[in-house]
Amino acid sequence: MIRTLATALAITFASIAPVLAAPVKFAVTDMEGLEALQQEFGAFQTALEEATGLDIELYPVSSRTTAVEAMNSGQVDLVLTGPAEYVVMKELSQPRIVVAWQRPDYFAQIAVLANGPIRSIEDLKGKKVAFGSVGSTSQHLGPAQALADFNLKYTADYEPVIISRNIAAEALIRGDIAAIGLNFGHLNSVREAFPDIAFSVVARGRDLPNDILVARKDIADDVLIKVRKAFAEKGTELMNAVLNGKDNQKFKGGFFLTEVKDSDYDYVRSMYRTIGIESFTDFVN
């Protein structure tokens, strides 16, 4: 009798005991290693926990491909990624959009020597133009699209070469290349690295689509609602926490944009097509 009563009580207590929810795992595609992730997003992790009431866990991924695999296997719930990566993730994972992370002055441009021979877009015909890695929105896709918007066709009207930013600046100064495709912040960095050299811009693109936070397609609806609500109602507090990270200063002055849809990234898809990529099922390097 006593044993039966004890068993019944154990079952009763087990049934009313709270079930601990699994943590919501957050990853960033361009940041490797847990230590770096904690340094940049540790304060944001705490702020998001306070705003949602959820247990948020930082989850490091080694690559964009790893992030997709983790989403598809249910190992990660939220992924912050760039616009070029998003359009591929959309094809591979069908993630749900949470919120866009605005980056002020996020646009591509074509820089030349201010006292050099290139004075206009037309002067770039037949010349070499340096870009960053093919997968970069603001250092390759965006600058190529900026030239296309001025009717200069990729590979047909000029020769694209892939060179890292500072090396490209040195090549430009030597006269080995005619121009560099890069974003606003990167050009400022180049000017700081070469303070005795004058640079000018011959082409600017439109503002690029924003970085975007997505959720795995089968995330629980109540979790997604809580996270979206947090960004809508506690955006200022969350952004202040984001800006605790040194590398996150690119978001300074920006906002979390809740009115965002997949078609907002069609401009990125047009960039891929500009450089000859028609399929968005693989990440390009």
Automatic annotation (TrEMBL):
GO terms for cellular component: periplasmic space. The keyword Signal applies. Residues 1-21 form the signal peptide. Keywords: Signal. It is found in: Periplasm. Belongs to the bacterial solute-binding protein SsuA/TauA family. This is Phosphonate-binding protein.
